[in-house]
Amino acid sequence: MELSDKLMSREAESMPPPVGHGGLLIVNADDWGRDRETTERTLECFSQGAVSSVSAMVFMADSERAAAIAQERSIDVGLHLNLTTPFAAPNCRAHLSKRQRELAGHLLRHRLAPVVFHPGLVRSFEYVVAAQRQEFSRLYGAEPQRVDGHHHMHLCANVLLGGLLPPGTLVRRNFSFQRGEKSFFNRCYRHVVDRILARQHRVVDFFFSLAPVEPASRLLRIFSLARRFAVEIETHPVQPEEYRFLTGGAIFRFAHKARIVPASALSKSGTPTER
């Protein structure tokens, strides 16, 4: 048995069964449209087949141009909900920018702030999330069918418990970890959040970050899971290490028999499965 097969078997023993998507791999680049450099590096990775989907930021410096490119190139795009990095587009309303900065101040104040529901910011969360959904629809011609978050803040308590994400959409789950990688409390909290997500949304079986690309055994384990499960890998091509990995062909050697597909390849039918 190959090393990757052994790692996959060991991982699968402690994980839930697949949700029915079969083996496939989504390689998603975050921050599409944040600025010109990010867009260009991501586009290069997409052109080489190393990136299969992107998550778009709206009200940012390159959002308009990135949207036009995505439409022209038929790139699979989801919404990268941004509650922490200041909007930079010249067409962004001053009131919206102020509300977003208010949310960022709360969410970044303490590492546990995102897990605490803030009743005083309910309307601000509703306003800022709705504005980004509307802007995505304006730029891309339709409501987002997939949502994730900058700094993963789409999973903060006010967004999740406030029901601010469109039901039935594909929503990014928490990072997947092996037993022992995180504390018991951390794993329990992530498990609860993923179960809440799966009641109203579609989720993949596993979610990982591409970085760090070393040690190789970590990536072998991740890519081998994609032979049987639906796996999403988050990438940031603007980061030199990830850019070299994606454009240098390494991703294809690691992926091997796994199918690299856009997120839209996941079936949109059926009821979301509880985790």
Q: What number is the mean pLDDT?
A: 89
β-strand number: 7
Widest β-sheet, arrangement of strands:
5-4-3-2-1-7-6
Shape by Cα distribution: globular
Output the CATH topology. TIM Barrel
- Total number of helices: 10
- Low-pLDDT ranges: 1-20, 269-275
Description of the structure:
This protein has 275 residues and is α/β, with parallel strands linked by helices. The chain has one domain: TIM Barrel, CATH 3.20.20. It contains ten helices and seven strands. Strands 5-4-3-2-1-7-6 form a seven-stranded parallel beta sheet. Strand 1, helix 2 and strand 2 (53-56) form a beta-alpha-beta unit. The radius of gyration is 18 Å and the shape is globular. 40% of the residues are buried.
Overview in brief:
It is built from ten helices and seven strands. With 275 residues, the protein is of the alpha/beta class. It has a single domain (3-265), classed as Glycoside hydrolase/deacetylase (TIM Barrel), CATH 3.20.20.
List the helices and strands and how they pair.
Elements lengths: L2 H11 L10 E9 L3 H12 L5 E4 L6 H11 L3 E5 L12 H14 L14 H19 L5 E4 L7 H5 L8 E2 L12 H17 L5 E4 L6 H10 L4 E6 L4 H8 L2 H6 L20
Parallel strand pairs: 1-2, 1-7, 2-3, 3-4, 4-5, 6-7
Helix pairs in contact: 1-8, 4-5
List keywords for this structure.
disordered C terminus; alpha/beta; 7-stranded parallel sheet; disordered N terminus; TIM Barrel; single chain; 10 helices
